[in-house]
Amino acid sequence: MQKDTASKSEQMHIANKEALLLTSFTSLEDFKKVVQVTYAGDTSSTSGLGKKHKVTLRYRSGDREVTSILQSGISQADYIEARKGHFWDRALLGLKSPYTVLQRDNLAIIENLGRRRPWIYGRGDVAFYDLAESMVFHIVDLDTVSMSAKDLSEKGYLNTFNHITAQAFMTSMFSERLADFVADVHELYNMPELITGNFTESQLTDFVNGPVDNYVDMINNEWGQELGKVLGEKFKINHNTLWTPELVSNYLNDIQGYHSWVFQIGFNPFRATDDKVIRFAEKLNMVKKVR
């Protein structure tokens, strides 16, 4: 295929640079041409639950490489059940995952940042998804005209931006370990078969929620963590940081700068006077008091 006739997503597939776009792939086999996928454990079972299974994704971009490992363990379902259940449900979760108990306050903070909760934070509450959606709207018109409808759909740039943004904030505010933990319990909840590779035919042909979607998310989570470490150091961010609208807008513009470099697209900037920026800054400062 000649470069000048390739679509934007096709060019990114060829370029093979860091963060990935789901719409660049047509199948799991297509994905495996770019990312090394290795399964370990007893793959004779149709489910990874109750057994030690593991999938390792390795992806090299230039002189940088990320590795994402997902293995048997608790999922988001266990966390939800324990939170809604009784004492013994929470005690059982603590036995399964002591780290969850140790990080329960920080996990509550992350959950609030990842969900719109206007009954707590007021009308027009902003979550990670809303910031990612703004980034899609910020793509300059000159670049959107060459993008496909799929690229501009929820499973295109929006999904990539959402994972990168959320993981960057979590890593900067807390740690890479906690961001990775949150990512893992979410992916296991979405599809336990990810760790065994024993997918059904319907899963393999499901573009919206199939294994390729989840594996792309896993790789993007890793790049989001790498970005979060850099931005955390640049802006001297930690759990006690006071988030001003200026800091939030600068942080988000640096994330857009990363996307601009990866996907070779332009963005209009966030501004400290933007309503979403102001609301998210207020939420970041308020949410740290949630227990």
Short description:
The chain has 291 residues and is mostly helical. Helix content is 54%, strand content 7%.
Low-confidence stretches: 1-15, 43-50
Q: Tally the helices: what do you get?
A: 15
Please state the overall shape, judged from the principal axes of the Cα atoms: globular
Termini, distance in Å?
Answer: 55 Å
Total strands: the figure is 3
Strand order of the largest sheet: 1-2-3
Percentage of helical residues? 40-55%
How much strand content do the residues show?
5-15%
Specify the structural class.
Answer: mainly alpha
Calculate the mean pLDDT score and round it.
85
What are the secondary-structure elements, in order, as H or E? HHEEEHHHHHHHHHHHHH
How would you describe the overall organization of this protein?
By secondary structure, the chain is mainly α. Helix content is 54%, strand content 7%. The chain is built from 15 helices and 3 strands. The protein has helices at residues 8-15, 28-32, 76-84, 87-96, 98-102, 104-113, 118-121, 128-138, 141-144, 157-173, 176-190, 201-204, 211-234, 245-263, 275-287; strands at 36-40, 54-61, 64-71. The protein has a 3-stranded antiparallel sheet with strand order 1-2-3, with helices on one face. Helix 14 packs across helix 15 (275-287). The longest helix is centred in the C-terminal third of the chain and has 24 residues, at 211-234. The relative contact order is 0.16. Residues 1-15 and 43-50 have low confidence and may be disordered.
